[in-house]
Write a structure and sequence with these properties.
24% helix; alpha+beta; Archaeosine Trna-guanine Transglycosylase, Chain: A, domain 4; 201 residues
Length: 201
């Protein structure tokens, strides 16, 4: 039985591009995010895994699994994936997000016309109700609550110093701002677009 997030939980939708990385998450209990392209706040309650084309016709472009977040630390790719010491990014810093057991959603959340996804913040309530990825987008009435929650998490985790977060100017990344409706809508990727792998498989 899937233990769904509480309605007020903060959920980060992340991209997972191949079954190997999903198996790492399942067996070893972690997910990696390159530090230089990471979202501003990684102190969340749950990760939701968006599966890309690498999962094949039946499983691609959907969120099927979630996992509770237990913590995170900063390390290098070489420390995380020790069988690839000569990888071009072996020395680069990554967040190692420690997670609990993967849980299968009662029904997958499909991309519909959204295919290009990097990171997306949402709430447990929206995740519970969503049928498509578009349903995860935080609308006007909930935007202020999500904004405040992200700010509090950033301060509590030490990712920002308080003087960097004045009440009226929170330093959010463009993708998050777009998801909050500040920069307009994110559209379907143009023809010929190659999928970006935030986890840098």
């Amino acid at each position: 039985m899937t233990l769904l997030p509480d309605p007020t939980d903060l959920v980060l939708v992340v991209v997972i591009t191949n079954p190997r990385d999903l198996e790492i998450a399942r067996v070893l209990g972690w997910y990696r995010i390159p530090f230089k392209t990471a979202p501003k706040v990684v102190s969340v309650d749950y990760l939701a895994f968006y599966q890309t084309a690498g999962f094949g016709e039946e499983e691609r472009w959907r969120i099927r699994y979630i996992a509770p977040v237990r913590g995170h630390e900063l390390t290098t790719r070489a420390e995380l994936i020790r069988d690839e010491p000569d990888h071009p990014r072996a020395g680069e810093e990554y967040y190692k997000v420690q997670i609990g057991a993967l849980q299968s959603l009662p029904h997958p959340i499909k991309a519909d016309h959204w295919r290009r996804i990097t990171f997306l913040y949402t709430t447990g309530e929206l995740l519970r109700q969503a049928l498509t990825v578009n349903d995860l987008v935080v609308r006007d009435e909930e935007r202020a609550l999500l904004w405040q929650s992200l700010r509090e998490r950033a301060l509590a985790s030490g990712q920002y110093q308080s003087e960097e977060l004045p009440e009226n100017r929170f330093n959010l990344d463009p993708v998050l701002l777009a998801m909050l409706g500040e920069l307009g809508k994110i559209h379907e990727a143009p023809a010929g677009w190659d999928e970006l792998d935030p986890a840098d498989s």
